[in-house]
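In response to the reviewer comment on reproducibility (Comment 2.3), we provide here a single inverse folding case reported in full, input and output, so that an independent group could reproduce the run without further information from us. The structure tokens appear first.
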């Protein structure tokens, strides 16, 4: 979705949840527009257009083990997909989440995730870059956890987070024998029109707003991580 405030700006923000009455967005305060958005009080108005672009490939993932790797705010765009899969355990019998956050205070959706771990189809590991007092979980990058696991070659892999995190994750998956066409990444670029007209989000032959943001990795592998793209 494109969220906007007059005289401030318009930014792309994923849908992090939805029901009949509301759309949920989870926003990290990093600059002028996101700051103004998170400062809004209940009842204030904002501009909203969309949704645009591609979604996580849940149809293709049906019946396969699913491995989700998320970093920081990257869990927000995946939350809806995880919820949908946990609601249909017959279709998605194994959902595995690896989630990395900077500190324990940065972990998103803590209460909700504690509910997810009760589901037999779900398993997760959370790791932080910097632990605080009282943290007894993993410390270090999520890829370290991945390297310890037997990763299903026929699984569907959903990745969202900083590009460098996705790059190391892809390397770990390749080392484990996971084919590039089983991996899906969500790409981030600056956007303006969000509808494939202005070229602001061009990435090689694609527009991330229209052809993405979710891409099957084998389509991007020649560009991914290369400077200038
Ligand atoms: C498809 C997509 C989905 C997104 N979903 C979310 C979401 O669910 N929650 C969320 O908090 N953020 C999300 N973002 C990122 C969000 O759009 C940017 O943080 C926002 O545009 C920053 O605008 P600003 O005016 O607050 O900050 P600015 O001052 O414009 O930028 C602050 C910093 O963020 C970087 N930045 C700005 N826009 C982008 C961008 N589009 N891609 C990469 N870096 C950027 C700038 O280079 C700068 O370093 C998403 C981006 C994309 C492309
Ligand atoms: S934002 Fe205009 S083409 Fe993608």
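Designed residues, in position order:
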């Amino acid at each position: 979705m494109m969220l906007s405030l007059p005289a401030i700006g318009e930014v792309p923000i994923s849908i992090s949840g939805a029901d009949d009455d509301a759309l949920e967005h989870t926003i990290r305060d990093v600059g002028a527009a996101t700051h103004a958005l998170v400062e809004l009080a209940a009842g204030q108005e904002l501009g909203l257009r969309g949704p645009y672009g591609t979604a996580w490939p849940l149809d293709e993932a049906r019946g396969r083990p699913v491995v989700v790797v998320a970093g920081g705010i990257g869990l927000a765009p995946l939350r809806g997909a995880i919820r949908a899969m946990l609601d249909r355990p017959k279709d998605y019998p194994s959902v595995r989440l690896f989630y990395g956050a900077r500190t324990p205070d940065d972990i998103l959706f803590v209460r909700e995730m504690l509910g997810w771990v009760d589901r037999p189809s779900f398993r997760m590991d959370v790791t932080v870059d910097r632990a605080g007092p009282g943290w007894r979980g993993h410390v270090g990058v999520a890829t370290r956890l991945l390297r310890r696991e037997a990763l299903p070659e026929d699984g569907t892999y959903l990745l969202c987070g900083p590009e460098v995190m996705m790059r190391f994750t892809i390397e770990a998956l390749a080392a484990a024998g996971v084919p590039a066409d089983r991996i899906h990444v969500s790409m981030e670029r600056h956007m303006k029109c969000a509808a494939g007209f202005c070229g602001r989000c061009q990435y090689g032959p694609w527009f991330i707003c229209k052809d993405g943001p979710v891409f099957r990795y084998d389509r991007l592998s020649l560009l991914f991580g290369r400077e200038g793209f």
